[in-house]
Amino acid sequence: MELQSLPVNYLPIIFQMIVAIGFVVVTMFATHKLGPKRVTSDKLSTFESGIEVIGNARTPISIKYFLVAILFVLFDVEVIFMYPWAVNFKDLGNQGMVEMFIFMGTLLLGFIYILKKKALDWD
């Protein structure tokens, strides 16, 4: 049996998109027209996490900060792959154990490379 994709099958999706976009437009218009408009110096001042802003926001930031952040995300995502392995540990048997050792060895080699390149040094 062959399934056919007809334009009629897409009507519920198109209708849902129209309703969602319409809701956003109507809500934004209503809040803009009906909301209070009190412009005060407190509302116009820059505010970040309860701290008054000091200096310029365009100050250069060390590339080390971004490098450490990227490395954290990289290793964090790789650790996520270990959870399904741990859950299915018994079902995977010896082959799963060997594959995980290869995966962990690759992670260890990457970590040693990062340490040798002194990517985590803040000097």
Provide a brief overview of the structure.
65% of the residues lie in helices and 3% in strands.
How would you describe this structure to a colleague?
- The protein is built from 5 helices and 2 strands.
- With 123 residues, it is mainly alpha-helical.
- A two-stranded antiparallel sheet has the order 1-2.
- A hairpin with a 2-residue loop joins strand 1 and strand 2.
- The model has no long low-confidence stretch (mean pLDDT 86).
What portion of residues is helical? 55-70%
Rounded to the nearest angstrom, the radius of gyration is: 27 Å
* Assembly level: single chain
**N-to-C SSE string, H for helix and E for strand:** HHEEHHH
Looking across the biggest beta sheet, what order are the strands in? 1-2
